[in-house]
């Protein structure tokens, strides 16, 4: 007897892949060329929630720094969100001068948040 299995709905994950690809300024064609697959395959994953093969799934989330925990473990606190992974990827590409600017910016944001709390 076959057991009934509900297929996972990949639409939300497909949208996250699309968002991550766009935030990296990458076209479907560029990503498809990098992965040696058809752009239509990527489009169907992003737009229709097509189930990718495990290998393609792995490559997509790795290349685009997409955190899958939020999709597979929705009730668990996510260690690193997709945004955090993407930011870390950008930081890894920066030199020391760039990091000084980013540190000052982050400190400014934290100071502004702290002042906002003090006013309330």
Quick recap:
By secondary structure, the chain is an all-alpha fold. Helices cover 67% and strands 0% of the residues.
Write a structural description.
- The protein has a single domain (11-119), classed as 434 Repressor (Amino-terminal Domain).
- It is mostly helical and 120 residues long.
- Helix 1 crosses helix 3 (39-48).
- It starts with 10 loop residues before the first helix and ends with a helix.
- The protein is extended, with a radius of gyration of 19 Å.
- The chain has 7 helices and no strands.
In the CATH hierarchy, the third-tier topology is known as 434 Repressor (Amino-terminal Domain)
**CATH architecture assignment name:** Orthogonal Bundle
Q: Give the number of DSSP strands.
A: 0
CATH-wise, what's the superfamily? lambda repressor-like DNA-binding domains
| Sheet with the most strands, sense and barrel status | none
- Gyration radius over CA: 19 Å
* Count of alpha/pi helices: 7
Ends: how far apart? 63 Å
Low-confidence stretches: none
Helix content: 55-70%
Mean pLDDT: 86
Overall morphology: extended
Q: Specify the CATH class.
A: Mainly Alpha
Structural class: mainly alpha
Total domain modules: 1
Q: H/E series, N to C? A: HHHHHHH
Question: In percent terms, what proportion of residues is strand?
Answer: under 5%
Write the layout of secondary structure elements.
Layout: H1 11-23, H2 28-35, H3 39-48, H4 54-63, H5 69-72, H6 82-92, H7 96-119
Any descriptors?
120 residues; 434 Repressor (Amino-terminal Domain); Helix-turn-helix; DNA binding; Cro/C1-type_HTH; Lambda_DNA-bd_dom_sf; 67% helix; mainly alpha; 0% strand; 7 helices
């Amino acid at each position: 007897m076959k057991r009934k299995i509900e297929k996972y709905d990949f639409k939300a994950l497909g949208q996250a892949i699309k968002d991550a690809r766009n935030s990296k300024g990458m076209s479907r064609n560029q990503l498809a060329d990098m992965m040696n697959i058809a752009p239509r395959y990527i489009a169907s994953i992003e737009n229709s929630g097509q189930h990718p093969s495990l290998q393609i799934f792995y490559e997509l989330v790795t290349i685009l720094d997409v955190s899958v925990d939020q999709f597979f473990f929705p009730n668990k606190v996510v260690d690193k969100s997709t945004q955090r992974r993407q930011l870390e990827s950008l930081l890894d590409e920066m030199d020391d001068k760039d990091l000084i600017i980013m540190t000052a910016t982050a400190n400014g944001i934290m100071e502004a948040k702290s002042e906002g709390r003090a006013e309330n």
